[in-house]
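Researcher: Structure prediction, please.
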Amino acid sequence: MPTSSRRSLWLARLAVLLGAVEFLVRALGRVGANWLSDLAAPYTSSTLWLAGANPYNPFKFLSTWQTRGGPNLGLSDWVSGTHSVYPPPTLLLMAPLALLRWNSAVYLFVLIGLVFYAAAIYGLLRVGWPQHSCFANLAKEPMALFFIAFALGFAPVHTAFHSLNIVLIASGAAMLAVVTSIRGDAIAARSDAVQEALAKPRSLSVSKSAIVIGICVTAAILLKPTTGVFLLPWLMHNRRWRLIAAILFSCGVITALSLAPLVAHQGMSWLADYRENVSFLFTHGGNADVSPQNTENTDRIDLQLVAFALFPDRTFASASAALVYLVLLFLFSKRAAWRKPNAIPEPEIRHYGLPLLVAAGCLALGLLPSYTRMYAAIVLLPLILWCFTHLHFSSARWLLFLLSDFLLNTSAIVRKLGETVGIIVRSPRLWDLTLGGHTCWILLAIGIVLLWAMREQTSLAPKGLSAAAKDAVPVPLR
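Model: Predicted structure follows.
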């Protein structure tokens, strides 16, 4: 699509308008405080933690929640949502929300989620189109507008707002860490080059960006470990060893601070309830169980779903998914560290391509091994940005085709179809292996195509860009 075409610009603006309407209807329009949302578990557990009580006692959940303004839904104490599995550090970070009444906490959470997501989108736009310093100029870029439309119509974000899941904040923090790292390194490289030429002291911009990255990654890990920990391979690839050490130290300190009052008031009795809650959720038909006993198991998008359908053993499913992840991560990282010596650099407007693809790839691959649902796919947004800014690569076009599945919550749509025709009841394992687990296969295909994308990114530029690339001045990145 020619970016200078007037028709393309108007199509892009129409797409943004439609995406905004969809976001208002499916994300903000479905937010409600009068049902057992995903926010209820960390909110109520944090309330109990602040009171010095056992935060993992399921029999205190509903009474505590209702005392704080939660609705009386007539639920049983054995509903999955009443068995919190959020670790103590998460409860410490959720304490500010737990100080508020339930309805107020919901509105504040939505506001925080909006701020984080808007900041992530804007930061990614500045990475994708760094030549534009204001939003008015970005509004004239069709591809930038199409990216905004994709971000507004992104089903995982709608699901996160609808379910009030804290992955919304964790994913926003993860993407802000990526944006800060890419832009901070580029600015630091330019600043250092100028200061070396003028024989001035070295700039502190690197350390400032490191502080922001450290805070964001630490928050992502403690709020949603299955999102945050998969940023560590990205930092390892960039050899940010001191930053990794600081993050792990911060996580340890916050964990100790969260455990101290818990142990002081409850001893270690809470640990037995925590383990039972985990077992309740992940086995024997619990809400997070990978087996067909859980009638909503196709909400999972990780590889454990299809692995369990092949061989019904939870250990096998976990190990095989982890193995596939490690193999793809190794091949991806190995290719990312290799560049042809005669490779033509990208045009200057796309000099963030390689570091963006590395970060986006690590986040995308992190969806494969552990328990994840549709809302966890918010972290695919940096990869979507890379695709829109590198449509001259065949791999980017194929990735965008696969990623378009996330413009709809196809897992929910397919499950309703299976329930209607009765296939889920008759052949549950076959269903999980095929249509029920289709999102798992799409994510695996994305992981494989990422290897192709990295090969194109680190190889010679396409012929159509050779002339522009020769005149471009590459910006050194650390």
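Model: The chain has 25 helices and no strands.
Researcher: Thanks, that helps.
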